[in-house]
Amino acid sequence: MSTQTAAAAATETDAPIMLISDLVDGVCEVSLNRPDRLNAITPELMRAIADTHETLAGMAGLRAVVLKGSGRAFCSGLDKSGFQRMKTEGRGSLGMDIMNRTHGPANMAQNCCWGWRELGVPVIAAVHGFALGGGFQIALGPDVRIAAPGTKFSVMELKWGLVPDMGGMAVMRTLARGDVIRKLTYTAEIFETDKALEYGFVTEIAEDPLARARELAREIASKSPTAMRAAKELLNISDEEAGALPALLAESRLQKDLIGKPHNIEAVNAGVEGRPAVYE
Question: What is the pLDDT of residue 270?
């Protein structure tokens, strides 16, 4: 598919940081496009993802979406510049009030994950390289995840003295056992694709996840578009009844009390300096 449309917002080199392909047979491909930074998350990327959701929602004839990362990774998590801002700017480090519900039940950061859930058509993520921290949470938003062998995943926020706050907890609980989620959250351990499949975070493993995601998207697009949209709405209602929406607000409330505080700053300093953290 040739990419002709780019979401608003750009990097310092003016390259578009979200790419939206032409619509072919009801399928559109969307790419996180900061390959030089392993598609690391910045406030600009968050806003570009929101713009992309809006564009897709208004796209006539859309039946399925393939979400991927450009270059060597799906998404490596929060850009390191964000950690520096946490140290100097505290909870305003992302340029937003995380308690503000800007996208339905979600804030701007949570929308990076939750917006794929709320999009009216199925979304298939092709995941490779890394899906760490916020990048892992973005990957949880789509309906299906196809991952390459050896892809590295992590619920990494505790490493930085934080909790997952990009919508991930609201989705994780529908995919994996509670004790598994707790272990991964508490340890911030990195696990690979075979374990992600065992836990329930990955739907399928494929040597070429993008090719498989495209194949699955075409299959979905061949079904009744009205029935497919109704099916997704029904599944989302089921998740919401299970308590997903209160989890979004709880994420923000708890994170707001952590960002910029001494333990968060010490965790960031220790991680950047490659030393054990010392908490008082």
Answer: 82
Q: What is the DSSP string of 100-134?
A: S--BTTB-HHHHHHHHHHHSSS-EEEEE-SEEETH
Q: How many domains does the chain have?
A: 1
**Total-model pTM:** 0.85
Of 272, 260, 244, nearest to 94 by C-alpha is 260
Give the ranges where 19-172 is alpha helix by DSSP (H). 43-57, 80-89, 108-118, 134-140, 168-172
Q: Which amino acid belongs to residue 25?
A: D
Cα 74–76–77 angle (5° rounding)?
Answer: 120
In a domain, 279, yes or no: no
Q: Which residues pair with 127 in a beta bridge?
A: 147
Rounded Cα–Cα distance for residues 164 and 114 (Å): 13
User: Residue type for 240, please?
Assistant: E
Stretch 25-49: mean pLDDT: 96
Distance CA 94, CA 72 (A): 25
CATH code at 253?
Answer: 3.90.226.10
Domain contains 280: no
Give the side-chain half-sphere CA count within 13 A for 133. 22
- pLDDT tens-digit series, residues 65-116: 999 999 999 999 988 776 566 555 554 445 678 778 778 878 888 999 999 9
Range of the domain at 200: 3-210+224-273
Strands (E), 130-263: 130-132, 144-147, 152-154, 190-192, 204-205
Q: Is residue 232 part of a domain?
A: yes
